[in-house]
Structure formats: C-alpha cells, structure tokens
Here is the input.
Amino acid sequence: MKVLSLFAGTLSKVVHGANSPLRNFSSSVMAKSKFEYVKGFEEDRKCLPNCWIVVRIDGRSFTRFSDVHKFEKPNDRRALELMTRAASYVMEELKEISLAFGTSDEYSFIFRKDAQLYNRRRDKIMSTVNSLFSSAFVFHWTSFFGFVKLLYPPAFDARVVLYPTDANLRDYLSWRQADVHINNLYNTAFWTLVKKGNLTPQQAQERLKNTLASHKNEILFKEFDINYNNEPPLFRKGTTLVRKLVQTPPDNKLKQFIIPLNVDIIGEEFWKENPEIIGMKSIQIYSKKGDEVGYMVSSKLPTTHENIEPTVPQNQEPSSA
Here is the structure.
C-alpha cells in the first residue's frame, strides 16, 4: 500500500506540478472549448481615427418618469442639477472627455479626437458612458431630491456619432443648444397658460399651435408680464461642463475641477475663452465670474475613508411617496 501511495503522490506532482508540461497542456486545452466558435459572431466596431466621438444619452420614457416623481413644470432645477452631477461623474471617470453639454433629460459627451479609450471600440465606449451615467443618477438622487422617494429605476438610451471636423462638432453643439431655446420657450409658454391662464393642456396646445417664437414671447409678456430673457440661463441655455484648473485656499494650489457653465456656446466668445477644447491643449486656469458658476465638482473621486453619504436639503419634510 505504501508503494502505491508513493506512486500516486509522484504521479500527482508530475501532472499538477507548476513546471509540469502535462499541467500546461491540460490548462491550454481546457481554456478553449468546442463552443468558442460563437465569438466569431461578435462585432468589434471601432470609431474612425481623428474624429470627435460624441456619446449622447437620452432619458427613456422620461415624460412618465417626471410625472410619477412630480417634477416641477416647466423646469425642475433639482432634476437638471442631478443630471449635471451624473454627467460630472462620467467626466471624472473618463478623462478623455473634454466637454459635455446637457439639457432636460439628455447629455452629450465629447471625446477628444485622439481618444484611445477601449482602443476606440464603439460599443464599449457607449455602454460604459451609459452605465456610469445611469448609476450616478440613482446614487445621487437623494442629494438633490431629499426625501422624495425614487419609485422605480430610470433608464437611458445612448448612441455614438462621429464628427470628422471641428466645424461639424461646433454645429452639433449649436444644434443641441438651439433646441434648448426652442423647447424651453414652448414649455414656458405652455405651462404658463396652464398654471396662470387656467387653460387645459389641450387648450394650451391649441393656443400655441403654429405660433412663432415672437408670438410666444408676446403671450408671456403681454398676458403674464413675463420677460423670457429674464428666465434663468440654466433653463434657456442648458449646461456646459468643462475641465479647468482652479486656485484653492489656503495655499492657492491649482486643482482640477469640472465646472458647469450656463452660457452661449453657439457664438465665438465661449470658444475664444476655452481654446483648449478644440485645440486639445492643456487645461487652463479658470477665473470665476460673479455668480456664473453654480457649483464645481472636483475631479477627485471619494475614497472609502471619506464621507460620501448623500445630503438632504434643509427644512425639507419627508414626502408621502
């Protein structure tokens, strides 16, 4: 029996030893099964080189989501700032995003032309952006909505679009900001007619049918004494996220921040003040102008040793939801 036991031990070392050729042969064979051929059906589409990569996420069925969670009409600042916080987290994680622009339930993320994230694999980039944004939206919900309960999980769809020239990229961003103005002017007029004009939604819709921007402005000003141009820039212009270096107290040390701006990005002024975006240059030092910036998000992610509990706005009572 001792002889058989010694033989079995020796055989085990030959087969399973670290340097055993049989062990290496066995593992290499086991690593590939007869089913592995199915990987051949997978697509590995890559974004064309030297193109701006734009990933746009959009809320899925957010009309229902906003109704269920009783968002303020026509704009809910809490929801807009939550969207921006989630977008900031995406930029914190993915350093090759040079700019993001958002409004309502959508956000566009602009990757540098020379970005190499996931070797420019389209599906990996899109799914990662969507996943980071969606999870951050849920994670930070109570920081902006306090005791308002999240009644069901939100969802976002996403797409990738490539723009080969700087002009194409600027036109894309101009298109998105122009849509902000068109949609917000309509919504402001619509909900003013409903809330202050005591019209039903159907009546308000009929009243605004085929009206131009000048007509909507006239309705707001003459009937309700509302100057649309005095509405908050957040609602009229959307939010643009940029990376900047900011001097921080007490030693004025430069730290990188992601800064939300509610400014015009169609004209030339923004691009002259932020040449590093198109030029893909080093991040510049930022000087705050008055109340232009609502808040800044540090690019430093929280660690397990830091307090990352969500904050609840003061003087807010729990909702019955």
